[in-house]
Amino acid sequence: MHSAGLVLHPRRDSAAAVDAVTGWAANRGIEILGVEEEIGRLDCSAVAVTAAELGSRADLLVSLGGDGTMLRAMRLADGQRAPVLGVNLGKLGFLAEVDVPDLPGALSAIDSHEFTVEPRLAVDGVLGTRTVTAFNDIAVVRVPGDGSAAVAVRVAGHEFVSYAADAVIVATPTGSTAYSFSAGGPITSPSVEALLVTPAAPHSAYSRGVVLSVHDTVTLDILPSSGRLAVEVDGEVAGYVEPGDRIELRGRPGAARVVRLGRTTFYQRARRKLRLSDSAELDGRLTF
Predict the structure, then answer these.
(1) Within this chain, do residues 180 and 225 fall inside the same structural domain, yes or no?
(2) DSSP-based three-state secondary structure for 131
(3) Of 11, 68, 146, 274, which residue has the fewest beta carbons closer than 10 angstroms?
(4) What does DSSP assign to residue 152?
(5) CATH number at residue 273
């Protein structure tokens, strides 16, 4: 490994984690890179580069923050060779692999090649003349005062289902534990290649979510009865659509890769961080 890149949360204190990474790198002759506006607030030895250079030059990206920082690191790694190691500086950090106290051990494991990389699916959407990319989800969301989201979902060019709801979410398996989960969608292993369509607060005749093949184009038609809708890409508003507009979406397998150390499985992380064990505790007695 010749270089590693830092992706930092804009506000959280990352000094201890940065020190761990830079100390590890100094002992091994590894160059540390960082986006200039992010590392400028820290007294560290990282070389300042642009965001595009960070993704293309690094052999490893280390995300220091929460899930939002991890998603940004995955976008920087999109189509590049560097996998992303997620380090949790927040409370939940579902996408992260380790907490700060475990970071030195994780870096040693990477030195020893005692890790695997897990490919992650992205979803690309055509919004007007722009293409947007999400690793969690793309959602069309009602604007307060402008009416609900009335959306027809077409799959591989064919009409499939229509929703009236507060939002319609198209999520990757990575995003199945985010907005889609809050709206009642299924928890889905990231090893599954599929797109999940979930209505939030539906009030249409059909109110269930659907799981679609990643190989099919998914089209969202904004119906005449719909209000103006915000288009959220990984939780950030990327634009707005009006009745009569159309958004074409397609899944893209293997867009980025994340580091896995094999200490926990996806199912263990989901059970712990989503507190699935608290949802229905049984007293050990069975009744028939």
Answers:
(1) yes
(2) strand
(3) 11
(4) E
(5) 3.40.50.10330
Residue whose token pair is 């506006």: 37
Count of CA atoms in the C-beta half-sphere (13 A) of 179: 27
Amino acid at 178: A
Q: Is 19 a catalytic residue?
A: no
Are 46 and 142 in the same domain? no
Q: Which residue among the candidates 67, 137, 234, 245 is catalytic per the annotation?
A: 67
pLDDT in tens, the chain (288 residues): 899 999 999 888 888 999 999 999 999 999 999 998 888 777 778 899 999 999 999 999 999 999 999 999 999 999 999 999 999 997 777 899 999 999 999 999 999 999 999 999 999 999 989 999 999 999 999 999 999 999 999 999 999 999 999 999 999 999 999 999 999 999 999 999 999 999 999 998 889 999 999 999 999 999 999 999 999 999 999 999 999 999 999 999 999 999 999 878 888 888 888 878 765 555 555 455
Which string of DSSP letters, residue by residue, matches 105-124? Answer: HHHHHHHTT--EEEEEEEEE
Q: Is 99 exposed, middle or buried (0-12, 13-18, 19+ CB in 10 A)?
A: middle
* Structural domain range at position 103: 3-115+261-277
Q: Are residues 171 and 244 in the same domain?
A: yes
- Regarding whether 90 and 37 lie in a shared domain, the answer is yes
